[in-house]
Structures are given as C-alpha cells and as structure tokens.
Known about the structure:
Number of domains: 1
Mean pLDDT: 96
CATH class: Alpha Beta
CATH architecture: 3-Layer(aba) Sandwich
Number of helices: 7
Number of strands: 5
CATH superfamily: P-loop containing nucleotide triphosphate hydrolases
Largest sheet: 5 strands, parallel
Distance between the termini: 13 Å
Strand order of the largest sheet: 2-3-1-4-5
Strand content: 5-15%
Structural class: alpha/beta
Helix content: 55-70%
Bound molecules: shikimate-3-phosphate
Shape: globular
Oligomer: single chain
CATH topology: Rossmann fold
Amino acid sequence: MEKNIVLIGFMGTGKSSVGLKLSEKLKMKFVDMDREIEKVTGMSVSSLFRKFGEIRFRSEERLMAQKLSKQSNLVIATGGGVVLEDENIQQLRENGIMIWLQASPEDILARVNRKKGTRPLLKRDLKIEDIEDMLRAREHLYSCTNYRINTSNKDIYTIVNEIHKIIKQIETS
Ligand code: S3P
C-alpha cells in the first residue's frame, strides 16, 4: 500500500485507537495529527485552544495536513474537525484513502466523558442533544468519502478487519 489511510470522523469514534491497531496490522507507520501538532507546538491541544484560540489550532492543523499529505504509507488519525477546511480534505485525499468512522451519539458521549477536559470544543455538562447537533452540522463534511464504518458495539479487531477488507477491495479493483 502506497497511499495513506486517513481516518476521519467525530470526536470519540475511535480514530486514534483503531488507527494504531490498523497500522500494526498493515505494518504501516501511525500518525495521530493532534499528537503531532502537540509535538510541533510544544503545547497540548487544549492549551493551544485556551491560549491562542481555535483559529491558531486550525492553522496548525492545516499545516500538518499539508505536511502529511506529501508522505505515503501512513495510517493517519485526524482530529474530528479536520473536515471543516475543504483544503484539508482535498490534500489528504490526494494521496490517501479516507475512511469515516461513525458511532452512535450515546457511545460518543460515553467515550468523551471518559476523557473529560481534553476536548476544548465540548462543554462540561455535555448532553446527547449537543452531540446530535454537532453531528448534524458536520455530517455533510464527513460524507466526503463513501467508505464508512460504524464502530458502535464492535470490538477493535472487527473494526480493523472491516477497514482491511475495504483496502484490499480498493487495491484489487
Ligand atoms: C476537534 C477534535 C479533536 C481535536 C480538537 C478539535 C474537533 O480531536 O482535534 O479538540 O473539532 O472535532 P479528536 O477527534 O481526536 O477528539
């Protein structure tokens, strides 16, 4: 596989954990965009938001998308908002297969609640309706790919195998 595999999807859909396992299976390098941004800036994503605002974070995210699109053979876990900029989608798509990870709002709420305080766009007393609203607002952006996997009620190995199947199909088509 030459192309990158780019996992997109809302916060808490499993992009990072699935991406890591997938990269191990396919013997590809794993890159988590948010962690890379943290390395480059020397700050956590939440401090970036707090100190410099979302605009600064998005500009770091844009630079990272540009940089990673020029590389190949990577499994990339994006941040949930990478699709907000059309330019990011175009670039990541140029040299990558995009896969949209989906999950039910209930699962998303449970997963993000386990890591409270690490996602600056989510308020503290987050409700199911808030997640549904955000999902509704972003769904058309995640639809930039036809490859979709629902991660709710599935173990990580099943999800990784489903993605692997998609990749094999693409390679042989
Ligand atoms: C964001 C998602 C986060 C992170 C930032 C913004 C978003 O990544 O990039 O907090 O706009 O959806 P995860 O999807 O890994 O939580």
